Each structure stands twice: as C-alpha cells, then as structure tokens.
C-alpha cells in the first residue's frame, strides 16, 4: 500500500478523519489527502487528539478558507508543537510551504510517519505507519502543485469547514490590525472599566478607518490600470462608500468621547444605524469577491505581481488584499460586542444589572419563575407572572430587587443540601462539603473539545473518576465551572459529564425501630399484611423498583391504598403544597391531619402502625373512634332508589341501603353520609332521595 494511503488510515485511527472520508474511496488519489491537510487545521487537531494539553484550539484558525496568511500560521503552529511537545528534530519536519504549495508532499508524509512513532503517539495505542513495505512513486507527488493551482478548493472541503468568517472565531488579521500601538493614557483609565471600553471603541474605530483608507489607496486605486471596471467593482464592492461612512463616524465618536464624556455616544450609533445597512451588500458579496480575486491572480501574472507590490507598500507585505477584504465583515460583527460591554458598565442601577447583583458571592440575574416563589429575605411572594425577581445561578436563591443586599452569603442552604438547580423536573442535589461547595463525580472524560463558549473561560481537563468541586452552575448552560480536586485546576466542563458524587449522597436513615416501617416490600405483600386489619392501619415501605423511594400503604374503606412518597430537593412529600425534612416529620403530621389534604378520596389519618398487635389496635379504635372515625350522626336514612356515583367524591347507593347522615349543609341538595363502610357525599334531592327510619 502506498505511503499516503497508510497515512490516511493512521489519521482515521487518530480520529482526525471520518471513516468514510473521500481519501478512503477506491478512486482516491494523493491529491485528495494533500488538499485535506493544506490549511493545517486537521494537523493541529491531530496533535490535540494525541496529547490534549499540547495545543489550544483557540490559538488556531478553524476556518481559514485557504487564506495564505491563516493557513501558514496553522501549519507553523503544528510544526512548532511537534518540536516543543513531541521532541521531534527540525530535520524531521517539512517546511510550511512544502504543504501549503505542496512543493514536497513526500516530506509531509515522512514527517507524519515519524510523528506516529513518537512515544506520545505510541502511548495512545495507535499503530504507527508504515506497517508494511511501501511502493515509492515520486512521480505522483511531482504533479501536485499543478493540480492544486488548477482545482482550488473542492466543494466537499467547503462543506466540511462550513462558512468561515464569524465573529467568535478571533480572526488574526482583524486582531492584528485593530491592536492599539499606544499605551493607555493614564492609570485612572486602566483601572476604570468604563474608560477602557470607551478607549477601545475609539482606538479600534480609528484603526479600522485607516485600514479602509489603506485598501482604497494602496490596492483599489493602483489596480484601476490593470483591471476592467466590472472586475474592480466586484472585488472591492462598496469600499469607497465604507471609507466615507467611517470617516464621518470616527470624527463623531472621537468628539463624543473626548469632549462630551460619551454622553451622546448612543445617539451617534442610532444616527448611523441606517447608513450602516450598506454592510449588507458588502457581507453578501465578499465571498464572491475573494473568489474573483483568486481567479484573476492565477490567470494574470501582472496582476499577481502588482498585488504583491501593493501589499508591501500598504503593510510591508504582512497582509494581502485577500486577507484585508475580510476585515469589514469582522468589524461590523464586533460593534454589538463593544457596545454591549460598554452598556454593562452603565447598568448597575438598572433592573438587568442591579447594584447588589453580586453581593455576598451571589450571581443574581433577572428571572421568570415558573412556580409561585417567595423571597429568601422577606418571605413575601415575588410579584407578577414573568421576571418576578432575581435568581442566583450558583445556589438557586430567589429574591426581590430591593432585598438583594440583605441575602445571606451564597453557600449552605437551610437543610444542608444544595438548592435545586432546576425549578421543574428532576434535579440533582448533593450535600455540601466543608468548603461549602458541592462535589461531583466525573462520568465522561473531557479534554477541552468541544471548547466552552469564548466568553466563559478556559476548559477543564477531567478524567472518569475525578472529583469536581462545583463553583458555578447555570441551570440553562451546557458548561459549568469547577475545580478538579486532583489537579487543583479551575475551568469549564460539560454539565452532562458529571453526576453527584456517591460520597456526597445522603446516607439512608435506619427506620427499623419504628412500628410503621416495613422495609423493602412489594405492594402485593403490603396488601396481604393490611387486608385483614382495621381501617386506617398503615405501613411505610421501600419501593422495590426504586430502593431510595418510599410509599405509604393504608387500609381505607376496606381497601388497601398506596401513596408514593416523593423525595425531591432533600425533602419528603406526598402533596406539592407541603414538604418535610424527614420521614418521621411526615408520619407525625399525617397522624393528626387527614390524607385528604393531598388525596380527596382518602379522608383518614395514619392511625394504626401495622406492627401494633391487632387486639391493641382494636382497643385503640374503640378509644379514638369518636375522635377520628365516627363523626356525630344526625340521623339514619334508607335509600329510596339506586344512585350511581359519577366520581370518587360521590357515594353509590342501591335502593334500600342504610345511610348514616353526618351533615346536611352541602350545596345543591348534597349531604355527607356513610354506607357500607364508605364515607362520601350523597344526593338527597331535598330529602326526597331518602326515607327516615
């Protein structure tokens, strides 16, 4: 097998190329592999896969679109890391142009082969190459430069990398051009966030305006003698209009910041809002402009030489016209970020960013609470139906705006458990450690890819089994912030890569000494235990399907009923409106309060624990019947005709049934009574439905 085919197979084993990539097709040629690797992106990804910590993908351009400047930067990053992290000799490495211009692709294959034999690569358990005798054919590499020039970027490659120029891709050309050369004017400005924001807006606008003028002066004007007016317009689109626009904008921005304390800065951008719409035309045509520029450069030697000359005059050859044409799109995508940062500096008194939003280590944000919620401080309800108050993304506390400054320090909750991270649905809750922060166990290895959002921070490398101390957890975020206990490193990791640490889970409480506790028991067995007992005899059992869950089984109206005890957020409950810290509290409460509070058809209390002997329960029944089971009887009646109950609240009767009447105060002719051991409401139709005894 040819060396390049073995190289492609090695890249697939390294998870750099998919198994069905075109280099594996029967019709594949060495050109396909060369074209795939030319921009340097996959080579950098290769190093990341072999040793995650050796390279940060934020330092490379993931979508260079074959820009020479960006591709060479990626390739040189790859070569540098090969020397520094993989200890390869410089003599073993190819030159950057050997790959980009495919001047010596055989050397590229040789370098990758030696990389596959390095100790780091071998430690990954991936078989190196070549693994068999190779057929050397130098002729297949000689024609590559001509093929590259003729074909350009294939459609598959364009689809593979998607569309390129996005604001979150930290474009190197834009950053280099916008970089301020002068130091900040004063120490006060350095320490003042607002001043720094204004200074950045001012300086970058000046730099950008200069860049536009440079494109017009050093490229567009000289090329008028070499290109027809149609091609000139297609390449430079509306650059002259952009130059005029930003000459005016930079003057007004400078005047506002220098002489008016930026008080009218927002008015300036509102004023220019309509004029900035010309960027729609530019951004929609810039890809076509670059394609036309590439085509003209390849077909006309005089234009290519003139472009090189223009580049040297404009910036000493650092940036080509192809690179500079991307800058306007980058700039227009930066405006909202610059203004958003400035806006945040002004909004400490607003509802969005109130004064005490971060007091006592909290991170309060305006929030819409789906459920009725009380303020942590004043215990009053949060008002309204949306954006009722503020929610701390770290501990889950809710509060009024006016109460934020009085909320206790973010950390341990009243019950010793972490507040629920999600308001609806199941939530994971863990006990706090001595540091006051919850700990999580890693269930999936994460090495920094995919990377967390740019505005979050660095990624945190974690391995299965590691323990993470949680610092920040936004309920709607895919990434959380934490500290790896083993390494002491801080960073962001995927929220689905962890689970509550087993050592943090609450230890089961021993209830075996309680007369009502039955241990693990199926509901069928519970029915057998209770069927021949007094009404209101009950037991608490572990549900066998969910060993951490409990259930109440109770005999009522000569039937055994089962109630699931919900254990959520560290509390026990059978109804949403009442919760208990312990199972003991729940049992004690419902010994004196009817279960009807949560179940309308279950009007009884927890009266007789099932472990109490039946004769003792019978005596207790006689002593307490007047209190719980036998309300005052107003009279006895006989049903005059059959009645079929329409729901659980009504009492079905047959003609001739004896009914004990407890109350006649119901509405619309309904009384409350008992028949055949069942207590429900029954219809009297003004007394005509019953016959008095």
Automatic annotation (TrEMBL):
One Gene Ontology cellular component annotation held by this UniProt entry: plasma membrane
GO molecular function annotation: guanyl-nucleotide exchange factor activity; zinc ion binding
Domain of life of the native organism: Eukaryota
BP-aspect Gene Ontology terms: cell migration; signal transduction
One Pfam family per UniProt: C1_1
The DH domain, residue ranges: 193-340
Domain called Phorbol-ester/DAG-type: residue spans: 361-410
PROSITE patterns associated with the record: CH, DH_2, SH2, SH3, ZF_DAG_PE_1, ZF_DAG_PE_2
Alphabetized UniProt keyword annotations: Guanine-nucleotide releasing factor, Metal-binding, Phosphoprotein, Repeat, SH2 domain, SH3 domain, Zinc, Zinc-finger
Stretches assigned to the Calponin-homology (CH) domain: 1-119
Domain SH3, residue spans: 435-503, 632-693
Residues of the SH2 domain: 516-610
PANTHER family hit by this protein: GUANINE NUCLEOTIDE EXCHANGE FACTOR VAV3 (PTHR45818:SF1), PROTEIN VAV (PTHR45818)
Protein name: Vav guanine nucleotide exchange factor 3
